[in-house]
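Re-run with default settings, no changes from the original entry. Doing this only to confirm the output is reproducible before filing.
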Amino acid sequence: MNPLIQGLFKKFREEEELLEIGTADAFELFAASLILPEDLMAQVQKSDLLLDQGAIGVDVIALDVNGQLAWDADDVREICENAAKVEVNLHFIQAKQSASVSSAEVLGFGDTVRKFLQNDGFPSYPRMEALAQALGAVFENYAGRLKGSPSVYSSSLQPQRSMRSPPTP
């Protein structure tokens, strides 16, 4: 991992008191903190962003409805019930610590995003399932109030090795 990223990640883990969770999970939260808007990050304990263990393709999904994080259909109802307009932003994040990402991982990310957007279901992953159903609840109950098509942001964070050559003696 790039030494700068490694140092920032170490500082992040210490400041957020994430030394007790696995390195991979902590790196996913580090990526989320760099990618997601600060106003969304302020609404949640960072560890709440982690998806189900073993979820394939996507490490973090954030459903932003009118500037608030929604975790399930009940949250969507609470946020949208009295709103004249509904604005939806979806954030999909894949974070890798390795220097390379295989094509299978990229395809897995795309396939998971596609399944999520089509609400194909994730019965083995309850958090992903609840988030997909929450998006479905927006379309089913509040489509007429949508300000526009939902914005979908997909991000893949992969720290590169330093591009500089080491100094020659």
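DSSP finds six helices and four strands in the chain. Residues 161-169 have pLDDT under 50 and may be disordered.
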